[in-house]
Amino acid sequence: MPGRLPSRGRIPQSRDTARRKSTGKRHRLNAMRTLSWLPALRRLVPSERLAEDLATRDAHGGDAWFAAQRPDVVVFPRSAAEVGRILGFANRRRVPVTARGAGRGYVGGCVPQKAGIVLSLARLNQILEINVEDGVGIVQPGVITGKFQNEVERLGMFYPPDPASLDECFLGGNVATNAGGPRCVKYGVTRHYVLGLQVALADGSLVRVGGRTHKNKQGFDLVGIFVGSEGLLGVVTEITLRLLPLPPAQAVLIAGFASTREAAAAVQAIFRAGHLPCALEMADRLTLAAARRYLESGSIPSSQPTSGVAIPPGDSCLIVEVDGQLHGVREEARALASLLTEAGGLDVRLATDSADRREIWDLRRSFSYSLKATGLIKLNEDVTVPRSRLVELMSLAEELGVEHNIEVASFGHAGDGNIHVNLMIPPNDRQALARADHALDRLFKTVIEWGGVITGEHGIGLAKLPWWKMATSPELRRLHQKIKSALDPAAILNPDKFVGP
């Protein structure tokens, strides 16, 4: 078995408890260190953009995963030039720097493992341009994804990537993790929409890669190197995104199924019939049970998604969205409704009105909140398999739950084989944690044997680090290391992640 991260051995009662436990020793060590570089940083950065108080530092010590590390200081740059100056300073003095967006990641990707500087991009939050004629949008990394989508759609254009946290996450974080979402099945992931980047390299220099044209074979694909690099190769300071015309019509179908096997089989039937949905989502029995309790509890915080749509009967469900021209969408939606019924769908419903469609998608976005509301610790694994293995993956998840006496709730992007397999662990139950580790070993090993990957959109971060070597060959790891060494020879950027010094 791969080596375990210390933080995986400390399943907490709450994320705050976990952070106190996982960082207490380091906090004491940090207090004893002499930060000889800090006075010079204070002279370099205006005081209103530099935070040294414990509350701010703790708030920037991690993401939605439970591990954290308190940085020595948090800096809030307001320009690309300022980012470059800070990186140049840190590179000369060998100070670790961890870039941070909105902190909505699920794998501890922005945990500053070696303390140092956390570089918050929250104040680089301007939409610089939306050009309908060119089909491009230019943004700073701190722009909220959902805000950008709304502004684009107001002008009749369309930015497809739609991670579940789109109303909270930053576009810079989407680029860092190559984020996806339900619409990936038809439209692809963030990588497919990044035309150009401005990047601050580890030595402080600013470089532009790519451009604003929709085709570009001018040199190496350097855009692709930085998209999904998790902050290990540079800090993105500006993003040029490809926009599409906004489809004039959409329709959403939701159907229950007696089992996940039947629902997964219906996914294959949809593609065999020649359909390419905009989105194709799936949920299992435990996910639906949690959602039913959550939505009927009457104690849902108003800041979280709710839904006015009833969850269909059965132990699994599919959500299917199609888009395009009005006549074509109507015909395809009717055909899909018939197909789902023939495939065993229970209570197949069709929504064409925008409010009704929104209710169904609010239901989908409530799944993660529903599982968190159970009070169990949710280990969210975003494995991806070839689509032909979808039925087997859903069956494997159920087997793991029975075999290791753990509740396993699965939902996600069935259309592209990217399923969130959530192991639900009672707080402070070390035996359950040990069983979960064994379950994860089998999950990841089997997914790799099937030609899949251990992460489809969340990234490696810290959570997947124990399985990085299992998932990659020595040759591939050496290639990663060569790229890292070329761009960050002092290894200051997001240290102690999957590519070390």
Outline the structure in words:
With 501 residues, the protein is of the alpha+beta class. The chain has 3 domains: 115 residues, Uridine Diphospho-n-acetylenolpyruvylglucosamine Reductase, domain 2 (2-Layer Sandwich), CATH 3.30.43; 119 residues, Uridine Diphospho-n-acetylenolpyruvylglucosamine Reductase, domain 3 (2-Layer Sandwich), CATH 3.30.465; 127 residues, 2-Layer Sandwich (Alpha-Beta Plaits), CATH 3.30.70.2190. The protein contains 16 helices and 18 strands. The strands form 4 sheets. It has a 7-stranded antiparallel beta sheet, with helices on both faces. A 5-stranded antiparallel beta sheet has the order 5-6-10-8-9. Strands 1-2-4-3 form a 4-stranded mixed beta sheet, with helices on one face. Helix 9 packs antiparallel against helix 13, helix 10 crosses helix 12 and helix 13 packs antiparallel against helix 14. It is globular, with a radius of gyration of 23 Å. The relative contact order is 0.13. The N terminus is likely disordered.
